[in-house]
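Lab notebook, bench 4. The sequencing result for the construct came back, and we need a structural model before the next group meeting so we can plan mutations. Quick request posted to the team channel:

Model the 3D structure of this chain.
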Amino acid sequence: MANNLTEQFIHEHLTADVRTLALSAHPDGVDMQYALTQISGWQAARVKIPLWAATDGIVYPKHLSLEQCTSQYIAQYKASAIKELIGNDFKMADITGGFGVDCYFISKSASHTFYNEMSIELCDCARTNYKALGRPEIEISSGTAEEFISRLEPDSLDLIYLDPARRGDAGRKLISISDCQPDTVALQDDLLRIAPNVMVKLSPMLDVSRALTELRHVSHVLIIGLEGECKEITLLMQRGFDAEPTLTAVDIKADGTPESAVSSVKSADAALPLPIADAALLQPGTYICEPSAPYMKSALFRSIAAKTGTALLHPDTHLFWSKKKPESFPGRTFRIEGIIPFDKRSLSALTKTQANLSVRNFPESAPKLQQRLKLRDGGARYLIATTLSDSKRVLLDLRR
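Done. Here's the predicted structure in token form:
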């Protein structure tokens, strides 16, 4: 616990620039290292975990733990998904507790909750924070995930949650499940003996198909984004499940509201028609829609088209066309201002103009194309270099 002088200093400087504070003189008796950690932690939490930032008595750990913890809105979405899938009043354990955000929100539907974490610092934070948040009954223990589950009897829990560490030596990011700690692939049989439901949070860079070959009994795959960026892939393993898993992609808005989710099993998605827009239909005043990252990651393009009444520009161009502006599309919607042929004469008119350039199903990278066209980045104009259904390459001239 910090002394009164330090707590007062923290309170008075919560919104100050941390780097400036670190270089400034401070009153005698102030634990400056602790104060800077708490101020920077609160500033990060204000955006990522607003409930923590709005609660008195919360303590924050070093920056890396906050950087790696789940955002509040994603944790709330997962908690609601778990409640829908397995109900209320379950007995659960988070065996890689971290900063405790997932554990807290999932525990609100549980009858009993265990939090386990290797770091003594994070355990101390969790103990203080859960009390401040009104959940002092969560049982906290320190040790490895393997040590924790070795003490448990079969069927002693209803749900195990884990978030394997995804950084290797020297901060190298890991995307293979078996390279993470703990190794969920090696532990999966033990986990499913202890609890019939096991939820695993994984890297957004993970290859979903590969994950499904490494982990058995996966019933649900949640691909979750926040403000258009894919943040995590979460798998639910259920004991004895041997059918095709349901894939769900969802993006969460800045205010915490989930966009309309797209869900299907792969075989059902593959059985849907693949609507392709006639290139002649792409006229000014019609619309181009670009799925945000989690929907792209799901590859449920036929389901997206069926749900939104849109058509793809080309089987390999994951952009969608609509004559009218769709009421709800899971991503960005643009109005077509023009179609620019990909020829020297047409492209020369773009020299030194300003636009946001991207490419979809196109042989040249965006940086190389931007350099060749001498485009200035930014502004309200969007150019997408792409391939249409008649195999012609064009630049779509768009406005949001």
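The chain is about 35% helix and 25% strand.
Will bring this to the meeting.
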